Amino acid sequence: MITLLLHLLRLLPFLCGGHRQLALENLALRHQLAVYRRTAPRPKLRPADRLFWVGLARVWTGWRQSLVIVTPATVLRWQRRRFREHWTQLSGRPTGGRPPVNAEITALVRKMAAANPLWGAPRIHGELLKLGIDVAERTVSRLMPKRRTPPSQTWRTFLTNHLRDLVALDFFTVPTVRLRVLFILVVLAHHRRRVLHFNVTEHPTAAWTAQQVVDAFPDDSAPSYLRASAHRDQPDRSIVITRIGRS
What we know:
Elements: H1 2-10, H2 12-16, H3 20-39, H4 47-59, H5 63-66, H6 72-91, H7 103-115, H8 121-130, H9 137-143, H10 155-162, E1 166-175, E2 181-189, E3 194-201, H11 206-216, E4 225-228, E5 240-243
Parallel strand pairs: 1-4
Antiparallel strand pairs: 1-2, 2-3, 4-5
Helix pairs in contact: 1-3, 4-6, 8-9
């Protein structure tokens, strides 16, 4: 009753003015709405009802005073949720995804990889193109079975296992007072870091170097591995590990 009197006082200027019919209709609707709220305190709203109030809140500043079915905070929550769902849909991942690969192509790739262990993904991809099967090389690489190769020993492990049987051979140069260059050959044992043999020459040759190796290891003292290092004046030479066979 008090609510009805408040509505009547609010509409009193309209009743005394030229909008009497509109004011009476507004009063009747508000009374019916108050009765409905007493019988159904929480009405069930549809998405269209929510969109109506969200749109009305954007164009009418006095929407809060006329809202009775829900609180104004509820309308603002609807608006924020609609905004969040809209941008979530725009920034979401595509639902299509990658098309699945035919099971026959998968079986063919694995069969070719098993029959030809030395073939990689580029070779198998080329053979599939010859057969008229259009599939990406990356897909072929993904379909190939993964081969588990035994891990190889590292350089440090090799040195630890063969340090006693490993010697190094290297040249270095020494300039003289007379502007000559002497080549010095050094054979070094890694185990004790001991110089086994050295010699000096002005014109090193392959025959001379081979003879120095023979002189460095008389009888049966030849090691299992011989390491030749690259010289700074010859950067194209790589480090070579040579296994020396014993008779």
